[in-house]
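Example record

One chain of 106 residues, shown exactly as stored in the release files.
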Amino acid sequence: MSIFIKNVEMPACCDKCFALDDHGDYPHCLITGDWRGYKFRTREKRMDTCPLVEVEPVRRGKWVHDGYDIPHGVDWMHCSECGNREPYVPAAMTNYCPICGAKMEA
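Predicted structure tokens for this chain:
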């Protein structure tokens, strides 16, 4: 199971994390329950078992019609994000650009 928390940046160390409980003898992670002892440098490191991962924003684009190439009989589309040109074949058009990975909106 995964969750995404809006407007929360990846902490550089445990000390900057919302899930660190340092009110006892040993600082521990509220998510995993893991602890490293009082000598663990919470202001410099993250625990090896930290479950937080960086999430990249989803790129969004559209297939834009370029026109019909009469001599070759090909209809062309391009990605609005990276400009990648693809021949328009309705059955083969995907929901993602094969070059930049943008999610294509209708």
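Notes: The chain has a mean pLDDT of 86.
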